[in-house]
Specification:
Elements: H1 5-14, H2 27-56, E1 76-82, E2 85-86, E3 90-92, E4 98-99, H3 101-112, E5 116-122, H4 125-133, E6 139-140, H5 148-151, E7 154-156, E8 162-171, E9 188-191, H6 196-207, E10 213-216, H7 224-229, E11 235-239, H8 243-246, E12 252-264, E13 267-269, H9 273-291, H10 294-303
Parallel strand pairs: 1-5, 1-6, 9-10, 9-11
Antiparallel strand pairs: 2-3, 3-4, 7-13, 8-11, 8-12
């Protein structure tokens, strides 16, 4: 088809790389071209606006104002320190995804607190609280039990998200009459360093001239079942609900009465106004999770029973 003068002029405007041609236009043709150029500019701006808006909505938190009034620019990042080898609590699944009771509770809290965005960092258990103390993380989540020793250094939120009872654990074949810490005098007891159970033994030894031979696990080995069942050590201490998780084959058993009842809470930096504000928000959310049954469901899913009350 033969190209008209107007078509050629339009093409030269749309594609400046085309060979320039000299055409003359009357006033009506010129006005057509000007209007066409304006419409194209408006359309281009509209398309660009749509693209920017779409990209802006791609984040995890909404860019618009949330139900509680927090906009994206107000969202504060919270670094959560946890482990990665505590089966059913904080561990990597077969696809390499971090999951477990502690992890999924935090994720549910994250979904409900629009003003915060939680991000996980994993550590060896013995380094989690050290990282909190050093300011590398904002919150520690690894079934930490609140006790006086930890309260001297850290701040705990008020609402527990799990409860447990610490008991003495021995080999299933062990028939020694072990019922209390007094019965462990002179025996080797395996325990994780910096754990709440370690503090139970350490406090006992302070008052009893180091009567119990404490054996500390190396590098967070989590090898209680092998060590105790093989007779390398005589016993360990642990939460009652964790035994079926760590020892599904039943090589170990609990004996005696509960040594104490632990309240499991999150750990924050002490004397820090922002940490206190975060802890208060977490407390309110945990109450909501208890009230609507979400915490009970997560506990049953990951720990086998409801340990949320």
């Amino acid at each position: 088809m033969t190209e008209s003068k107007t078509d050629a002029k339009v093409n030269s405007i749309l594609n400046p790389n085309l060979t320039a041609r000299n055409y003359e236009f009357n006033s009506e043709q010129t006005e057509v071209l000007i209007n066409l150029n304006k419409k194209m500019s408006i359309a281009s701006i509209f398309i660009l606006t749509l693209l920017v808006t779409a990209c802006g909505n791609g984040g995890e938190k909404e860019a618009s104002t949330g139900a509680n009034g927090a906009s994206s620019k107000d969202v504060k990042k919270v670094i959560v320190g946890t482990g990665s080898d505590f089966e059913q609590v904080a561990f990597l699944d077969k696809d390499g995804k971090l999951t477990g009771y502690d992890v999924e509770v935090i994720r549910e809290i994250d979904r409900r607190l629009e003003e915060y965005e939680f991000e996980f960092q994993t550590f060896d258990f013995s380094n989690i609280l050290l990282s909190l103390e050093a300011g590398k993380i904002d919150l520690a989540a690894h079934l930490f039990e609140k006790n006086p020793e930890r309260e001297q250094k850290f701040y705990f939120n008020q609402e527990p998200y799990a409860y447990w009872r610490n008991k003495i654990i021995v080999a299933s074949s062990n028939n020694d009459p072990i019922k209390s810490l007094d019965d462990l005098k002179g025996k080797k007891v395996l325990i994780g360093p910096t754990s709440a159970q370690a503090q139970i033994l350490e406090n006992y030894n302070k008052d009893h001239n180091d009567a119990i031979k404490i054996v500390y696990q190396q590098d967070d080995a989590n090898d209680e079942v092998q060590q105790v069942s093989s007779g390398r050590v005589d016993a360990t201490l642990g939460a009652d609900f964790l035994l079926p998780i760590k020892d599904p084959q039943g090589k170990l058993k609990t004996v005696g009465d509960a040594l104490n009842e632990g309240h499991i809470q999150y750990v924050f930096r002490k004397d820090d106004p922002e940490s206190k504000k975060l802890a208060d928000a977490v407390d309110q959310t945990i109450k909501e999770l208890k009230a609507d049954g979400t915490l009970k469901k997560l506990s049953e899913e990951w720990l086998g029973l409801d340990f949320s009350k």
